[in-house]
Write a structure and sequence with these properties.
The complex is a heterotrimer of chains A (390), B (185) and C (219). Chain B has 7 helices and 6 strands, in the order ααβαββαβαβααβ. Chain B is an alpha/beta fold. Chain B has one domain: Rossmann fold (3-Layer(aba) Sandwich). By secondary structure, chain C is α/β, with parallel strands linked by helices. Chain C has helices spanning 18-31, 55-64, 150-161, 192-196, and strands at 35-41, 45-50, 69-77, 112-119, 126-133, 139-141, 164-166. The longest helix of chain C has 14 residues, at 18-31. Residues 1-11 and 214-219 of chain C have low confidence and may be disordered. The chains are: A alpha+beta (390), B alpha/beta (185), C alpha/beta (219). Chains in contact: A-B, A-C, B-C. At the A-B interface, α6 of A face β1 and α3 of B.
Chain lengths: 390, 185, 219
C-alpha cells in the first residue's frame, strides 16, 4: 500500500513539473469539452460542459433536463393509486423502493397502517430492489474504468434478483405492487426458498467483484484520493446514502428512523468509510449489498403470518393534511412531501430525490481534477438520470 | 458496384446483399431511460446475447451504425439531438423504437416536456411495446427487422424511390416495405 | 406508530412528543419575532412559517441550532387548479370550479409559498419552513450562501414557479428548453394533452383482495 502511495506521489510530482514546463513554454489556451447529452459513461442523458486548461478542469457544469418528464406536475392530475405507477419510474433501477415512501406518506395522512406481514414483504422487496440496483452499479463501475468483465457478472446475477421480483410482483422493472394499506398480493409459493438460494449467489457475486475490481491495483490507483468530499460539505449539499456514509457520516435512515417497516426487527451494520474519496463510495456500496442480503435472510426467517392488506375504502380519498416521509433508497434519501386537500389525488407532491442533491456537488467537486477523473467521480457518485431530472 | 449505382440490381444479387446486411447490423445504443437497462441486458448480458443474431452492439459513433435503438423517454430538449444523430447515420439506416415512451409518450402522455413518440422526429421501422419491454421483446424486434431487410429492394432505395419490398414471400412473416412493424408480445 | 383508526370512539389522551416540543421551543426562542405561525404534530413533524424579511436569517439561525443537513427548497402554488381536480375530466365543461385558496399547515396569506426542509443530522428531527411570497414581489432571499445545496433547488423552483431568489448566483433554466414559455408547476399552466382528449383513467376502481362484489361487471 505504501509502495503504491509513493509511486502515486512521484507520478504527481512529475506531472506537476511537466505542467510547469509546458505552461512556461506554451501559452495554453482553454478548451471547452462537451460530454453528452448521450454518452455511455454518464448513465443516461446527463450533459457535462467542462472548461479545460490542458488536462485539468477549470470549471465544469452538469446540464440536466434531458430526462425531465414533469413528475411533480403529473402527480397533481393523477389519483393516489395512479401516482404509484408513475413514481416507480423515477429511479428505474430500484423501482419498488420509490413506491414505498409515497405510500407511507399517504398512509400517514389516512391514519392507516399496513399489517405486519405486508411491512415485512415490503422490506424484503425494498432490499431486493436495492440489491438489483447496486449490483448493476458495481458492474457498470468496471466498464467506466476500463474493465469490461464485471458487467457480465453483474448482468448475470442481477437476473436472479429480477426473477424474484417478477415472481412476486409480476413486473421485472416496475412492479407497482404497493397499495395504500398493504400490498396487492401475498408472496408466491416457493419464494422464500428461492430467495435464500439467490442471496447466497449474490454474496458470491460480491466476493467475485471484490476480487476482480476492488483488489485491482489499477482500480485502486484510479479511485483512491480522487474526488474527496469532506463531511461538512457533504451535509451542506444534502448528500445522502452511500455518498454521505463514505465521508464518515454514520447515518442510515433504515436504522435511525422509526417508520412502519421491518428494518428495526433486523440486525445489520451501517457501513461507513472515513476517506470520502471515490474508492470509499464504491466500497461502501459493495458492503451494503452484502448487508442487504443478510437483512433479507433475517426477514425471511421471521416473516409473520396474517393478511397483507388493511381495510381501506375502495375509492381512496386522502384527508386534508401534509406529510413528509423519506426512506433510505438505493441512491440515498428519497422523500415525498405530500399535500392533500381531501380529494382523490394529491394537491402537491414535492419529490426530494437523492441524485438531485448528490449531483449538485459536481461543479464543486470537478474543479481542478484531470479529465479521466471526471468519469471516475461521476461513476462513484452514482446517479440515475430519472432521479435527477424527475 | 456499377449495377447498384445505376439502380439495376438483379434479384439473386439483392438477396445475397440483403443476407449480408441483415446479419451484420451495427447497432448504436441510444439509451435514454428505463428501457436502456433492458436494452443493456439484451445487448450486454450473457443470458440474452444479441450477437448470436448477427448484431454488433458496439459502434463508437452513429456514423458507423446501421441501426439505432431509441430506448426510453424522448423529451423536447432531447429531440434535436436525436434528429441530428439520425442525420449522421449513413444510408441505409433503420430505427427501432423501444418502449411505450419512445412509441407514443407512454405514461407521460400528458406531460409538458415529453415528445409524444419518437416517430414525430425520425421514421421508425419497428416498434417494440412494453414499459419496459423485456429483452426478449427487443430481440424479436431485431429479428423482424432482419426479415424486413432480407426482403428489401436495394435498387429502389438507390433510385431514390424509398423502401420497397421485393415481393419475395418469406413464410408468413414477410413484411411490406415502408410500413412500420409492431412486435406483438 | 399510527393508530389503525377508522373508529373514533374512545377519547385517548393526546400523544406527547417531548423531544420535538423542546426543539420547537428552542427554535421559537432563537427566531423570535420572525416566526408568524408554528405547528407541531406529535411523533411526526414540525412546521414554522416565517416572514419574508427573515427568510435568510432563519436558515443561518437554524444552521447554528444544529439543523445542518439540507433537505430541499421548493414552492407550493395554493390556487386550486382551474382545470379541475385529478379525478375531474379536464376536457369537459369547466362549470363552477371553486377558486378559493385553502392554505395548509402553519397558514399563509399568499398564493405562492416557498417551503424548505432542514434536518438535524444523525436524528430524524426535521423542520419544514414556509414563507409567503407576495404576488407583487414574487421573490425571496436566496439560501445558496448558507446551504450550498440550495443552489440547484432554487433554480428548479425559479423555473417551475417563476419565483425569484435574491442573491442567487445564477438563476438559469435547469430543465426546460430555453424557448419554453410559462412556469409549468403553476396551477394555471394547462396540460394541453388532457384538454384535447379525455383521460380514460378517471374512474379508478380496482378490486381489492377479499373483495369480490365487482367481479361480474368487470368483463
Amino acid at each position: 500500500m505504501t509502495m503504491l502511495g509513493d509511486r502515486q506521489q512521484l507520478a504527481y510530482i512529475a506531472s506537476q513539473a511537466a505542467d510547469a514546463r509546458v505552461n512556461v513554454e506554451l501559452e495554453t489556451e482553454g478548451m471547452t469539452l462537451n460530454i453528452g447529452p448521450q454518452h455511455p459513461a454518464t448513465h443516461g442523458t446527463l450533459r457535462i460542459i467542462a472548461r479545460l486548461d490542458g488536462e485539468q478542469v477549470v470549471w465544469a457544469e452538469p446540464s440536466a433536463g434531458y430526462m425531465h418528464r414533469g413528475y411533480e406536475k403529473l402527480t397533481e392530475v393523477r389519483t393516489f393509486p395512479q401516482v404509484t405507477a408513475l413514481v416507480n419510474r423515477i429511479d428505474w433501477l430500484g423501482s419498488f423502493a420509490n413506491e414505498v415512501p409515497f405510500i407511507l406518506a399517504a398512509e400517514k395522512l389516512m391514519g392507516v397502517e399496513a399489517p405486519s406481514r405486508a411491512q415485512h414483504i415490503r422490506t424484503i422487496l425494498f432490499e431486493l430492489s436495492r440489491i438489483a440496483n447496486v449490483s448493476l452499479f458495481l458492474g457498470d463501475l468496471g466498464v467506466q474504468l476500463g474493465a469490461i468483465t464485471p458487467v457480465f457478472f453483474a448482468f448475470r446475477d442481477r437476473e436472479y434478483v429480477l426473477n424474484l421480483i417478477e415472481g412476486a410482483t409480476g413486473g421485472r422493472f416496475h412492479p407497482n405492487f404497493d397499495r395504500i394499506g398493504g400490498l396487492k398480493d401475498d408472496l408466491p409459493a416457493g419464494f422464500i426458498d428461492e430467495t435464500r438460494v439467490v442471496m447466497k449467489k449474490l454474496r458470491t457475486f460480491c466476493d467475485q467483484i471484490e476480487d476482480l475490481l476492488f483488489g485491482n491495483e489499477i482500480f485502486q490507483s484510479r479511485t483512491r484520493g480522487i474526488g474527496v468530499i469532506p463531511k461538512d460539505v457533504a451535509l451542506s449539499y444534502g448528500l445522502s446514502g452511500a455518498n454521505l456514509r463514505a465521508s464518515g457520516v454514520d447515518w442510515d435512515l433504515r436504522r435511525d428512523q422509526d417508520i412502519p417497516m421491518a428494518w428495526n426487527k433486523t440486525d445489520f451494520k451501517v457501513i461507513t468509510h472515513p476517506d470520502g474519496d471515490s474508492f470509499a463510495r464504491c466500497w461502501v456500496r459493495l458492503q451494503e449489498v452484502r448487508e442487504s442480503t443478510k437483512i433479507v435472510d433475517q426477514l425471511l426467517d421471521t416473516i409473520p403470518a396474517g393478511p397483507v392488506m388493511a381495510k381501506v375504502p375502495k375509492i381512496i380519498k386522502v384527508p386534508e393534511g401534509e406529510a413528509w416521509v423519506s426512506t433510505e433508497n438505493p441512491l440515498g434519501e428519497m422523500g415525498y412531501y405530500v399535500v392533500s386537500q381531501g380529494d382523490q389525488g394529491p394537491f402537491r407532491v414535492k419529490i426530494r430525490s437523492a441524485s438531485f442533491n448528490n449531483i449538485s456537488i459536481v461543479p464543486w467537486l470537478l474543479k481542478g481534477v484531470y479529465v479521466p477523473d471526471i468519469i471516475t467521480i461521476l461513476a462513484s457518485l452514482y446517479f440515475i438520470l430519472g432521479d435527477i431530472d424527475r | 458496384m456499377g449495377l447498384v449505382d445505376r439502380g439495376r440490381l438483379p434479384k439473386p444479387l439483392t438477396s445475397l446483399f440483403n443476407m449480408g446486411r441483415s446479419y451484420s447490423l451495427w447497432v448504436y445504443q441510444w439509451g435514454l431511460a428505463c428501457c436502456a437497462i433492458e436494452m443493456g441486458a439484451a445487448f450486454g448480458s450473457p443470458r440474452y446475447d444479441v450477437m448470436r443474431l448477427g448484431v454488433i452492439p458496439l459502434p463508437a459513433s452513429p456514423r458507423q451504425a446501421d441501426l439505432v435503438v431509441i430506448s426510453g423517454t424522448v423529451t423536447d430538449k432531447m429531440a434535436p439531438a436525436i434528429k441530428r444523430l439520425y442525420e449522421q447515420m449513413p444510408e441505409p439506416k433503420y430505427v427501432i423504437s423501444m418502449g411505450s415512451c419512445a412509441n407514443c409518450g407512454g405514461p407521460y402522455w400528458d406531460s409538458y416536456s415529453v415528445t409524444k413518440g419518437v416517430d414525430q422526429i425520425i421514421p421508425v421501422d419497428v416498434y417494440v411495446p412494453g414499459c419496459p419491454p423485456r429483452p426478449e421483446a427487443l430481440l424479436e424486434g431485431i429479428v423482424l427487422l432482419q426479415q424486413r431487410i432480407k426482403n428489401e429492394d436495394m435498387g429502389a432505395r438507390w433510385r431514390g424511390e424509398g423502401t420497397k419490398s421485393m415481393n419475395i414471400v418469406d413464410g408468413e412473416s414477410a413484411e411490406k416495405g415502408g410500413v412500420p412493424v409492431v412486435v406483438h408480445n | 406508530m399510527f393508530p389503525l383508526s377508522s373508529t373514533t370512539d374512545t377519547p385517548t389522551e393526546a400523544p406527547r412528543d417531548t423531544v420535538r416540543e423542546a426543539e420547537l421551543a428552542r427554535i421559537l426562542e432563537a427566531l423570535g419575532a420572525g416566526v408568524v405561525d408554528s405547528l407541531l404534530k406529535p411523533n411526526d413533524d414540525m412546521w414554522i412559517r416565517v416572514t419574508a424579511e427573515t427568510w435568510r436569517v432563519t436558515a443561518e439561525k437554524l444552521k447554528a441550532l444544529g439543523y445542518t443537513y439540507f433537505g430541499y427548497v421548493s414552492a407550493i402554488d395554493w390556487l386550486p387548479s382551474p382545470f379541475g381536480k385529478s379525478e375531474d375530466d379536464a376536457s369537459g365543461p369547466s362549470g363552477e370550479r371553486d377558486s378559493t385558496i385553502k392554505q395548509g399547515y402553519a397558514g399563509g396569506d399568499t398564493r405562492f409559498q416557498v417551503i424548505a426542509r432542514l434536518v438535524q443530522p444523525f436524528t430524524t428531527i426535521g423542520i419544514n419552513i414556509k414563507v409567503d411570497v407576495a404576488d407583487e414581489v414574487m421573490a425571496v432571499d436566496s439560501w445558496s450562501s448558507v446551504f450550498a445545496g440550495a443552489n440547484w433547488h432554487e433554480r428548479e423552483a425559479h423555473e417551475m414557479f417563476g419565483i425569484g431568489f435574491n442573491g442567487h448566483p445564477d438563476l438559469r433554466n435547469m430543465y426546460l428548453p430555453t424557448d419554453f414559455e410559462g412556469h409549468p408547476m403553476r396551477k394555471d399552466f394547462p396540460l394541453l394533452a388532457r384538454i384535447v382528449k379525455p383521460w380514460p383513467g378517471i374512474v379508478d376502481v380496482e378490486p381489492l383482495p377479499g373483495d369480490d362484489e365487482e367481479e361480474g361487471e368487470a368483463s
